[in-house]
Amino acid sequence: MPDTGYLIAAVATAVAVTWALRALPFAALAPLRSSPLVAYLNTAMPVGVMVILAVYTLRSFNPHVPDRAWPTALALAFTVAVHLWRRNVLLSILGGTAVHVALASTLFVH
Amino acid sequence: MGLGAFPMGVAFGVLVVHSGLHWWWASVFSGFIYAGSLEFLFLGLVLAAAPLASVAVTAFLVNFRHVFYALSFPLHRVRGRLGKGYSTFALSDEAYAVTTGEAAQSFSSRRVLWLQGFIHLYWAGGATTGALLGSVIPAQITGLDFAVTALFTVLAIDAFRARRDIPIPLLALACALVGRFAFPGQMLPAAFAIFTAGLLTRYAWTRRERAHA
């Protein structure tokens, strides 16, 4: 088990790097706000970032491990369908997660 | 919207306790680091007693995307040094996502800070709840981590609806897959770098076409 001193140092390291990445660009990017390139990146970036992060969370998806792949595929389809239908963020997330937990814990238990 | 952070936090808290750490480490990790996808990786690193340099490099790569959040996040609406300090500290993916709309550019200082505070609380509260429940939840109940996937999927759909430009999500999907299969150890930085390069190329291309027209 890692000792407390090490854990505190590790948390401090992660906080320092994360906060720097979040705060420093405001100083560097602020003068660029009026540039058309920055305006383009600003409108194009969000959807791409979300798609990449969604795929990133699925990086261990493996169709050759059906007990894990089926719950993921079905819950993902359910989440997308419910979201296109009801357009309610919370409902889609909780519903999709509930379907995943139910399938992974019962039918597809490994 | 930020409520999605709660079930993710619960999943994280359960993992912290199931890995053998005290429940309050879940509150410390989620309250201070406050960067969902990094925390799941962070937990693996500290359990393996990874050197602090590895923790720093991982934090840098996983959270490098936050650099772009400065482009549209309405920090200019937030007043006071303390307010701006907290606002940059709590600029998580979820906080960025709820402020990407045009409407957020005219939010009041109070509204931006309360929004961020609530998402922070949902995440840290979820993690603490999960850690406390962790010993009660039987090990057979699995799959809570899907909340993270559901969150980003739903946010991607909403971001697409805001600006129905099909090539951009397709480019992002291609970049994510290239990152996943060509650079499996560095998927996130690789995918973001290629995606950014792709957007810059497309921008230069459309400008040249306009100049010719």
UniProtKB/TrEMBL annotation, chain A:
<feature type="transmembrane region" description="Helical">
    <location>
        <begin position="37"/>
        <end position="56"/>
    </location>
</feature>
<keyword id="KW-1133">Transmembrane helix</keyword>
<protein>
    <submittedName>
        <fullName>AzlD domain-containing protein</fullName>
    </submittedName>
</protein>
<keyword id="KW-0812">Transmembrane</keyword>
<feature type="transmembrane region" description="Helical">
    <location>
        <begin position="90"/>
        <end position="109"/>
    </location>
</feature>
<feature type="transmembrane region" description="Helical">
    <location>
        <begin position="68"/>
        <end position="85"/>
    </location>
</feature>
<dbReference type="InterPro" id="IPR008407">
    <property type="entry name" value="Brnchd-chn_aa_trnsp_AzlD"/>
</dbReference>
<keyword id="KW-0472">Membrane</keyword>
<feature type="transmembrane region" description="Helical">
    <location>
        <begin position="6"/>
        <end position="25"/>
    </location>
</feature>
<dbReference type="Pfam" id="PF05437">
    <property type="entry name" value="AzlD"/>
</dbReference>
